[in-house]
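FYI - complex with NDP, inputs then prediction.
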Amino acid sequence: MSNSHNRICQLLDIQYPLIQAGMIWCSGWELASAVSNAGGLGIIGSGSMYPEILEEQVIKCKEATNKPFAVNLPMLYPDIDKHIETIIKYKVPVVFTSAGNPKTWTKHLHDHGIKVVHVVSSVKFALKAQEAGVDAIVAEGFEAGGHNGRDETTTFCLIPMVKDAIQIPLIAAGGIGTGRGMLAAMNLGADAVQVGSRFVTSIESSAHENFKQYIVASEEGDTMLTLKELTPVRLLKNEFYTQLQSAYQDGADKEKLSEILGRGRAKKGMFEGDLVEGELEIGQIAGLIKKIMPAGEIVKEMMTEFHQALTEQKNYI
Ligand code: NDP
């Protein structure tokens, strides 16, 4: 049952304008189906999945929900053709593309009846995505966890600017984890919101329990954007982050930073729970997350808070 007053609910055939971000190592079928069953849109994060794993995840997600769900496809993914084949074979209704050119796959996915939403972090790329024919845009601000834009534009500034520039539906992301945040983003011009970090700490997330607990214990100021020379990424501070900081102080160049990062750091931290040597990708909103909850309860709580805040807002005037 979609909400006919909202462009994103109409487009994606969902009840609430609330989307769970596709996140490597954290969002598999359990999380995606739980969010979709609760009336939002759940997304499987395929960036960390070998092709046969994604296929298994899509099959399980279809068994767990008859509501729409999506797959997030980072365009840097090495076996992207195989992921696309799986998405088409199993008729996944929506794809969220990120980290690449939206022109490459949009038409092909549309030809197979799949809706395409592209993630950007600037007005320039929002315009390019609209030109490429995507159905909607996620504009993600500086507060977001994981891969981040180069311009460091915050959600508060980015959303109204993108809103002014594009005509297609707009989803705000970065720093949103509560109903109040959701209302604020929609007041700035977004049709819907995408929430990542809050769902990392859900029961159904595939993030390691150590990582979830570490997020819940974190406070304001505990995340930082780093590795701008490679791909800018927002991390929760830990020993690995400190190693990077020392390398910067010693004047490390791109090659040295790449060598320190190595391969599979995100898996080590977020999936295997190594809080010392692992890379812990999370957004600034982590400092506001105080509880591990079922994903469906998060959706319910956010929507209740959203409506309370909306009523309060109406009473101001
Ligand atoms: P690394 O190069 O450090 O490691 C690759 C990881 O991906 C390994 O852990 C590997 O698992 C796994 N993997 C899954 N499928 C493949 C494949 N076909 N070939 C090689 N490795 C594969 O990369 P990251 O962990 O930093 O990033 C992985 C992906 O996630 C990339 O596509 C990247 O663009 C995306 N990403 C997206 C982010 C976002 O915010 N949207 C944030 C960070 C990354 P194993 O160890 O089992 O071999």
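The CA atoms of residues 11 and 135 lie 8 Å apart. The pocket of NDP is lined by residues 24, 47-50, 74, 76-79, 98-99, 146-147, 263-267, 281 (CB under 6 Å).
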